[in-house]
Amino acid sequence: MIYTVTLNPSIDCIVNVDNLIYGSTNRAVSQSFHFGGKGINVSAVLSQLGIKSVALGFIAGFTGDAIKSGISDNNITPDFIKLKNGCSRINIKISSSKETEINAPGQAPNTEELKTLMQKISLINDGDTLVLAGSVPKMMDYNIYAEILRTVSDKNIRTVVDASKTLLTNTLKYRPFLVKPNKQELSEIFNVEINDNSEIEKYALKLRNTGAQNVLVSLGKDGAILVDEYGNIHTQGIVEGKTKFTVGAGDSMVAGFLAGYEKTADYKYALDLASACGIATAFSDTLAKEEDINSILNKLQKR
Hints:
The chain is α/β, with parallel strands linked by helices. It contains 10 helices and 13 strands.
């Protein structure tokens, strides 16, 4: 079973504005609502690929209730902890000439609520997969992902970390199966400016040598680079199409990679499916759908 953890889930309100003017009243062309957070996004794309998962994390208030009911389907089992105080956050995503995001801070759990989550995670079995993805609520300890991995370190569990800066680097001593920084996050981890693929490969290898087993770097319009557990470097580009909105594209890649590796244990295929999922999301108004994923995967493998 795959378990995804979203400590800071959200309702994302996506508004499309032809030409955003700051300091003025803007009229949206359209709006849509999506139940998200990086771990939830991974579960949603896994569902499109026919893979079941359990969504763990925290929800709060009426917005939390909406998130729980909104993500439930035959392949996703929500198993959130309902916080006593506050509400789950609402984020604003503005699609215009440039993408603009306003992300709310979220509601942090108290000591007992965090303990309850740890107890749930401690029951995960050998052979399962645990995905830790996204930000944490303000005032929450940035060592939390490392603490979660320590909780399951005595088990044979495949772990994935998709987070920025210290949230990710603190986990490396527990040798996560996969980490997925983007180019900017990779630059921030090593406090350097990365200009080309050779430098991406250099620092991805360094991240692998620091503890990660596999490093998948998402590059947006430039595709993706994977450094696998053996030190082999795999690359994948993109296909022609119109990018509509990139929110969730990286999460989609994580889902595709896990699905591809679970199916074949082949890193090249896992990268192909990861790329297809990421592209399908970027070309869509929502997270990737099965039909679009398969179409793009076919195009990538024919090149």
